[in-house]
Amino acid sequence: MAVAAAIPWKVILRALPMVAVTAKELWNYWSSRPRTAPVDPNADLTTQLASVGERLAALESAETEQAKLVSQMAEQLQGIARCAAVGYWLGFSGLLLSCVALLLAAFR
């Protein structure tokens, strides 16, 4: 297993307030975004098709943004998994060293 680079915890902890504010702003944006009007079933076919086309373009744009966000989340989770693996192996190594130290102290 490859050893990951050191975790810049100071940088992460300093960025947490900014992350929280940005997440709140993102939530406010998505919760207050303008809603598209429903398609009028009594309108002529050309108007209905234009309305459906606009809604489809908006959905495609939102889907692209969501795919980008999911990709970023996957990269972050991969980094967290790498750091957790390093933490696991460091903890396991510490446990082994402490067991060896106890055995050496007991049999001296």
List the defining traits of the structure above.
108 residues, 2 helices, rod-shaped
What does this structure look like?
The chain has 108 residues and is mainly α. Helix content is 80%, strand content 0%. It is built from 2 helices and no strands. The model has no long low-confidence stretch (mean pLDDT 81).
Total beta-strand segments: 0
Q: What would you report as the Rg, rounded to the nearest angstrom?
A: 26 Å
Shape: rod-shaped
**What is the H/E string?**
HH
Outline the secondary-structure elements:
Elements: H1 9-32, H2 45-106
Give the gist of this structure.
By secondary structure, this protein is mainly alpha-helical.
